[in-house]
């Protein structure tokens, strides 16, 4: 036996914390980002998760600032800082891309989102304020440049009469790629489709939206 | 523009690679490093010659500075890859079960850690290329089955799916529109 006590302690520590809450948060953020990127509609804002991650990002920036001033010449801390900074950049990228993807959906669907209480609930407070201000600016621009000059009957931007809606809404019939996380039977076009655990399928978002919300499939 | 329109509902190859770099890999440190609390994970204390699991992005940083050797995943050997290739040839109707990020991981390791490979890197590279080609060929043949309702793509990796994504989404969308207008015409 040439294991020393440190190794044993280490092993114990590793086995008890193989999946720390930070690992789980990191994985959920990755998942949320992929989901937001690959689904046609706006998903619920992950407020707690983003807050926790932002808090850790702030703490990590502080750590970098503290250590880069004081210990510039020590080799060990240099490598540590390289690692810490690379990881910080990776997390920042995820957070930014997640939020920007949401903003692009909010821009596209603002009129639709405002018309449905269930959609508004998916926004964070900041996103709501952003949406209102952005839409107001856009409408002011439209009104002063051309809408104001049109006959009154043609001035609406949310007209739904005549069987044709002017409101851009998410196209739930868009094709998405999924992996089934459990066995399920669904119907697409009156045709039964058997989802087998682990199988990968491309099909319309609306066909699996419920299963996606129940976490029975994941979007890939 | 908060995000370019071409990035909606797809991922870039760079982003797929980003996902692959989060996978874990075993390293053999040649250097001590105290354990480190990061935002999204905790790095265990590294001691020379004591195997540890770390994310690939970290393994590559350490490898670039010559501070570790990377232990190749079991599937990344000539023998195992040949077995996968044989399966691809034998079963024309399905794909061999390669890892979810096999292309990105093998590319990164061939580039950054080919000296840690037990097999000759050029042999690995050749066989990876062969696998890539036979799978692409099969995927294209399989697209004949494309209809407006669904298609099954078991065992394709994320990068391979991402390559097919624009084509499949567009074709299925057009087919749906065609069949919708046929149906409404009948009524």
UniProtKB/TrEMBL annotation, chain A:
Main function: The GINS complex plays an essential role in the initiation of DNA replication.
KW S-adenosyl-L-methionine (keyword) present: no
InterPro entries in UniProt: GINS_A, GINS_bundle-like_dom_sf, GINS_Sld5, SLD5_C, Sld5_GINS_A
Keywords, ordered alphabetically: DNA replication, Nucleus
One Pfam family this sequence matches: SLD5_C
Predominant localisation class: nucleus
Similarity-based family: Belongs to the GINS4/SLD5 family.
Domain of life: Eukaryota
Protein name as catalogued: DNA replication complex GINS protein SLD5
Localization per record: Nucleus
Domain DNA replication complex GINS protein SLD5 C-terminal positions: 170-220
Organism: Kuraishia capsulata CBS 1993
GO terms under biological process: DNA-templated DNA replication; double-strand break repair via break-induced replication
CDD domains, alphabetized: GINS_A_Sld5 (cd11711), GINS_B_Sld5 (cd21692)
Ranges for domain GINS subunit: 76-144
Subunit and interaction comment: Component of the GINS complex which is a heterotetramer of SLD5, PSF1, PSF2 and PSF3.
Gene3D superfamilies reported for this sequence: 1.20.58.1030, 3.40.5.60
Gene Ontology CC annotation, any one: CMG complex
Automatic annotation (TrEMBL), chain B:
A cellular-component GO term for this protein: GINS complex
Residues covered by the GINS subunit domain: 75-178
Keyword Manganese: no
Keyword Iron: no
Keyword annotations of the record: Chromosome partition, DNA replication, Nucleus
Main location: nucleus
DNA replication complex GINS protein PSF2 N-terminal domain sequence ranges: 12-71
Transmembrane segments: none
Compartment(s) of residence: Nucleus
GO biological process, one term: nuclear DNA replication
Pfam families: PSF2_N, Sld5
Signal peptide limits: none
Domain of life, per lineage: Eukaryota
Quaternary data: Component of the GINS complex which is a heterotetramer of SLD5, PSF1, PSF2 and PSF3.
Family: Belongs to the GINS2/PSF2 family.
Protein's name in the database: DNA replication complex GINS protein PSF2
């Amino acid at each position: 036996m040439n294991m020393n006590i440190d190794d044993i302690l280490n092993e114990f520590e590793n086995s008890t914390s193989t999946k720390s809450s930070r690992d789980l948060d990191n994985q959920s953020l990755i998942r949320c980002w992929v989901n937001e990127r690959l689904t046609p509609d706006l998903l619920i804002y992950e407020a707690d998760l983003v807050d926790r991650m932002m808090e850790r990002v702030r703490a990590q920036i502080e750590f970098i600032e503290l250590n880069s001033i004081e210990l510039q010449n020590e080799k060990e801390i240099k490598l540590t800082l390289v690692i810490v900074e690379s990881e910080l950049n990776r997390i920042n990228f995820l957070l930014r891309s997640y939020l920007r993807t949401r903003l692009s959906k909010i821009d596209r669907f603002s009129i639709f989102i405002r018309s449905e209480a269930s959609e508004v609930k998916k926004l964070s407070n900041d996103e709501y304020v952003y949406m209102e201000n952005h839409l107001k600016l856009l409408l002011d621009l439209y009104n002063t440049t051309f809408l104001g000059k049109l006959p009154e009957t043609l001035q609406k931007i949310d007209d739904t009469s005549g069987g044709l809606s002017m409101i851009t809404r998410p196209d739930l019939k868009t094709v998405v790629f999924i992996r089934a996380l459990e066995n399920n039977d669904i119907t697409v076009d009156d045709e039964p489709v058997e989802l087998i655990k682990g199988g990968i399928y491309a099909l319309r978002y609306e066909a699996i939206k419920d299963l996606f919300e129940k976490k029975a499939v994941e979007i890939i | 523009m908060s995000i370019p329109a071409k990035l909606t509902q797809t991922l870039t190859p760079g982003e797929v690679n980003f996902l692959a770099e989060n996978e874990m890999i075993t390293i053999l440190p040649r250097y001590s490093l105290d354990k480190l609390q990061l935002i999204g994970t905790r790095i265990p204390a590294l001691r020379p010659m004591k195997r540890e699991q770390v994310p690939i992005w970290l393994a590559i940083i350490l490898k670039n500075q010559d501070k570790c050797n990377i232990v190749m995943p079991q599937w990344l050997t000539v023998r195992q890859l040949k077995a996968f290739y044989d399966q691809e040839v034998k079963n024309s109707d399905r794909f061999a079960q390669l890892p979810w990020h096999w292309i990105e991981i093998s590319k990164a390791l061939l580039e950054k850690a080919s000296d840690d490979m037990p097999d000759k890197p050029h042999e690995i590279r050749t066989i990876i290329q062969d696998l890539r080609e036979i799978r692409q060929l099969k995927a294209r043949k399989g697209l004949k089955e494309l209809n407006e309702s669904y298609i099954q793509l078991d065992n394709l990796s994320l990068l391979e799916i991402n390559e097919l994504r624009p084509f499949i989404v567009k074709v299925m969308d057009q087919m749906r529109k065609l069949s919708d207008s046929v149906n409404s015409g009948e009524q």
